Amino acid sequence: MGRHMTVSVDMGLDERGAAVGMDLEELLATRLLVQGNSGSGKSHLLRRLLEKSAGQVQQVIVDPEGDFVTLGPAYGHVVIEAADYSVAEVARFGTRIREHRASVVLSLEGLEAEGQMRCAAAFLMALFDAPREHWYPALVVVDEAQLFAPTTGGEVAEEVRRASLSAMTNLMCRGRKRGLAGVIATQRLAKLAKNVAAEASNFLMGRTFLDIDMARAADLLGMERRQAEAIRDLPRGHFMALGPAVSRRPISVRIGAVETSARSGSPKLTPLPQARAFDLADMLAEPVNDAPLLPMAFEARPRLVPADELADTIARPSFSGPAPLAPAPDKDEAEVETIVADALRAIVADADAAFRSPSTLFQDFQVRCRMAGLAKPPQDLPAFTRRLSCARAGIFDVDAEEWADALALAGTLPDDMMGAFLLVARAAKDARPCPSDAELATTYGTSSLGRVRRLIGYIESRDLFVTRVDLSGKRSITIPRLGWTTEPAEAA
């Protein structure tokens, strides 16, 4: 048998001057937590890990401060400035990244806290929800993880906090089998949700001042409080390391040098201007005409890249990724319709799809169409949403003459109600039992039976349904304009 080869990432030197390696395959299986107060060298550590493993594994970085965008020119990462795009576009990028194995920096700089959480949640969930055929191994680095998996609600809306926490939990708890290896870094361990932190098996602990963070660090490292006191005295750039990917016992690591630097470094003192006070006062009071631009310490912001152009960039990364596909031959209408129907059947057959939003499923639909040889899906989101409603009712041939009148009536309802209407219409046309509230709820994309009852009431108010309950309590629904009636059945 051939010897199993491991890829070791050189992180720096231990206290004896020996090299300390990070086993990349073990890291992919066991995840990493990095903790250190501001000034501990936490970002430097992440940069070392990313630079030394670039080209060995796909890298995806969620970057709240825009610190890692400088990896782009040096290592070929695609930089996405989230502030320039909608949440839906950011989620679409997440789907394309998994498909094309592009290394990416998602910069959330310029967004307020709630916007950062919304974007990160949509992006991470798109990575997590990628089709099985795209579950390639990827290092997913989330800096300032306490922002996205906080222990308390803070100032953001509860639904935003829940979505962000859920995305982080999926990354750390369920991401492994999907190839996603979480590397999370935080300044405040006590502010990071416990279930997210506890999923990491590898730890790199830097300088920590607050007792509450020290206690959490000691708990995670399995060290006595007295031993963990050493964390308080660690110099900048030194970390206590423990875990199957780095060391089976706690060792001190001095992180090695890096090739790139953050876009914004630490502030440096510069000499004050040598001018007398009254001269400065006159200068400040002077009206501004054509004031010269002040030189900045960083490059000007690059031009805004349109979403389609950036998506194409992701599809053909310059540094890594698969070779570009040959253009697919043109297909006739019948072939296109077959591909669309098959993609919809696959989506509807997925039990989890019932509770995903149409926009999320549209991304799945686009990927399936592309894999079947359609370079550009033949439908936009509104058209897909209507086809999805038909598919959830079991109607895949929307051009069939027998469904023309029913589809015309369904088109008078809001898009999200079409599926429930058509499910009843299908049962009524075939004289089958009336769908239950639970079946309608699944088609409607809800778990609330109260919402289903309000839905039926609304459709009745539009004179599209007539509901009748017999003496045994069974419900039947008639669609008077079509002359179709379901068989009676229990509503529950």
TrEMBL record:
Domain Helicase HerA central, first and last residues per copy: 14-72
InterPro entries on file: ATPase_Atu1862_pred, HerA-like, HerA_central, P-loop_NTPase
Pfam families: DUF87
Protein name: Helicase HerA central domain-containing protein
